[in-house]
Write a structure and sequence with these properties.
This protein is of the alpha/beta class. It has one domain: Rossmann fold (3-Layer(aba) Sandwich). It contains 8 helices and 9 strands. Strands 1, 2, 3, 4, 5, 6, 7, 8 and 9 form a 9-stranded mixed β-sheet that branches. The longest helix is centred in the last third of the chain and has 13 residues. The radius of gyration is 15 Å and the shape is globular. The two termini are 28 Å apart.
């Protein structure tokens, strides 16, 4: 089984960790303030989720990154070579309290993130659903909740697709990063915040 790391312990990072814990899938979660500040969080989630350093989280096979947009460069700076590991980009180029879109030029937000994690294989996922929908039962609405993902590396997408399935979601592959990530990017894409459910 792939090992999983989480960089960022905000709403999406916590929701993802909660979803993993519900299925008994181990993970290491890290924030910018150190593992000791996450002791209450991991105690609440149970024995499969442990707090670690940023480097420990980044060393796992699949690493979900969910950090405030302005803090992404600092959160990803100085980490060891990604060496082909899978980075799941769960970020959106917008921040509270003003929620003004961040200018990206002609690039998608995932293409910007990919530039911050050289040698990683980037898959966009877990950014288009509200946090409470990620952490709650994916079958709670009478079917499987849909979760979109996209990326340029077929094997990386397959690994993330398998994880999505293990969590109980119905994954839909939106194709390459430059296309799929724009469809789920908030703001701008047509798919964010849609709570779609596959019945049957």
């Amino acid at each position: 089984m792939n090992t999983i790391g989480i960089i960022g312990a905000g709403q999406i990072g916590r929701a993802f960790a909660t979803a993993l814990a519900a299925k008994g899938i181990p993970a290491v979660i890290a924030n910018s303030r150190g593992p000791e500040t996450l002791s209450a969080l991991v105690a609440e989630m149970g024995p499969t989720i442990r707090a670690g350093t940023r480097d420990q989280a980044a060393a796992q096979d699949i690493v979900l990154v969910a950090v405030n947009w302005s803090k992404l460069p600092a959160a990803l700076a100085g980490l060891p070579d990604w060496a082909g590991r899978v980075v799941v980009d769960a970020n959106n180029p917008i921040e509270a309290p003003l929620f003004k879109p961040i200018p990206l030029g002609n690039r998608s937000s995932s293409e910007v993130v990919a530039g911050l994690v050289p040698e990683a294989r980037v898959v966009k996922a877990f950014n288009h659903l509200q946090a409470h929908l990620i952490s709650s039962d994916p079958a709670g609405d009478g079917g499987k909740r849909v979760l979109f993902y996209s990326g340029d590396d077929a094997d990386a997408k397959a690994q993330v697709g398998t994880l999505i399935d293990q969590l109980g979601f119905f994954g839909i592959d939106l194709g390459p990063l430059a296309i799929g990530s724009r469809l789920v990017q908030f703001p701008g894409g047509p798919l964010p915040a849609l709570n779609l459910v596959k019945i049957g």
